[in-house]
Each structure stands twice: as structure tokens, then as C-alpha cells.
Amino acid sequence: MATDTDKKKQPGIAILIVEILILAFLVYYTIMAMLAPVIKRDALETEFGFIQDDKKENNRDFTTDSAYLSLLKQKSYLESRVKMANTDSIYLTISLPDSTVNLEISGVSVHTAPIKHYELSRIIKKGNEYVISSFLSRPFTIQKDYSSIPKEPLMIKMAPKDTSEYQPDIIPDTADFEPVNYIMEMDNGIRLFIYQDENKLNPGDHFHRITFDFRYRLAAFIETLRSVLVFKVPDYHPYIKIRLPRSDAKIIYRAMPKNGQVALFR
């Protein structure tokens, strides 16, 4: 027959087991999350890495030559732009050295916006220069987007009975005063975050960006958790985060077609 002391120990043992299981899962989750960028890096190196053919003459490995890598970076960017220009559709180019984002059609810039601040994921910023430049030689295509403003403003008008009752409806665009933040998911796994440059006189802009970003991060966490629960390493998505003036951010979002393309020059 169990004594009173044994009965008191049982709840304590159960709590300890639960704590150990939770700790074990957190360690497992952390390891899986840390493996994700490593696997992404290895996949990029396998697909875009330099392959040296000893059978060919003068097939030297130039991947450590800074002058060659600088030219390769420019060449990759130009290749992306040429491919997009041939589509006869509006597209987006991001030039970090110039701190500009440009809407272009057939190689001609139709709108330029200044970049106030930007941030790149480590795999793009610090990865193998040859691999990343080769990776960026292909434009990326938008698959999905999440935004704080509608793609096209919706206006509801009541038809007048006759011309005497007609009055023009002037409905202000809410995006003129609402924060403009959006995220574009690309076909190559890159995530492009575009946030309006916050108005320091309006603390609500900062709070809106935080809540908008939190909702997206929460959805991404749930997606990662689902992968981990079935013993699968979650997908890693390199990111580009840019802050633009609000009016420019709105123009770019509404001008970009549904499956628009983007090129990046670092």
C-alpha cells in the first residue's frame, strides 16, 4: 500500500518528466532550425557552385579573385535585367550600392525610390560570392504577397437615376494615411520585406509594423513547427528587408503585377 510520502512524490515525478520532455523538444527544435540554413547553403553550392574541369585548358578557378567576382556580380545583375526586359512587363530592380529601388519596363526606369535602410540575411550577405552571384543571375518571381493595404483600392458607387443626380465620388485612398507594409514570397525561396520608413511623429506606424511582422512570423513559426513534428528539416528562406518612403512603397506594391519579377544588385 502506497504511503503518503509516495503519493506526494508521484506528482513531482510527473512534472519532472514533462519538463524533461519539453526541454528535449526545445533542443530538437533548435537543432532542426539551425540545420535549415546549412542545408539551404549546401543546396545553393551544389546547384550554383564552380565546377572545375581539369580536361579543359585554362579552366582555372577564379572564385577567389576579387576583380573577377566583382565583374561576375555586375554581370549577374545585368543578366537578370535583360531576362526581365524581354517580358514586356513591369518589374522591380533593387540596387543596394545606389540605395535605390526602381520600377522598370523594357529596361527603362519609370519610378525610382530611395532606400532608407536595408538588411540582408547572412546567406546572401556573407555567403560564397560566386554561388550567390550565380544564384542572383536569375530574376525571382513573386508567388504570394501579404500586405497591409489592398492591391487595388475598392470604390463602391451608387448609379444615379439620371444625369441631374450625378455627383462625382471622391473617396480618399486609405493608404495615404495608413501604414504601408508588405511581404513578397519568391519562387526561389527569397522573402522580400518592404516596410514604409516610419514617421517618428506617429508612434502608431511603428506599432503597426511590429504587429504586421509578428503575424507573419507566427504563421512562419507554425509552418516550421509542422515540419519539425514530422521529423523534417524546415525550409530556410533568405530575406531582403527594405524601408522606403510610404508613397513610394505604395506605388511599387500596386504597380507590380501578380507574378512580377525582381532583380537584386548587392
- Biggest sheet character: 9 strands, mixed
Alpha plus pi helix count: 6
List the secondary-structure elements in sequence, H or E. Answer: HHEEEEHHEEEHEHE
Placed side by side, the strands forming the largest sheet appear as 3-2-1-9-5-6-7-8-4
> Superfamily at the CATH H level?
L,D-transpeptidase catalytic domain-like
Mean pLDDT: 84
What proportion of the residues is helical, as a percent range? 40-55%
How far apart are the termini? 74 Å
CATH class: Mainly Beta
Structural domain tally: 1
Query: What is the rounded Rg?
Result: 25 Å
Computed structural class = alpha+beta
Strand content of the residues, in percent?
15-25%
How many strands appear in the DSSP assignment? 9
Shape call: globular
Give the name of the CATH architecture. Answer: Beta Barrel
Stretches where pLDDT is under 50 for at least 5 consecutive residues are none
Determine the CATH topology: L,D-transpeptidase catalytic domain-like
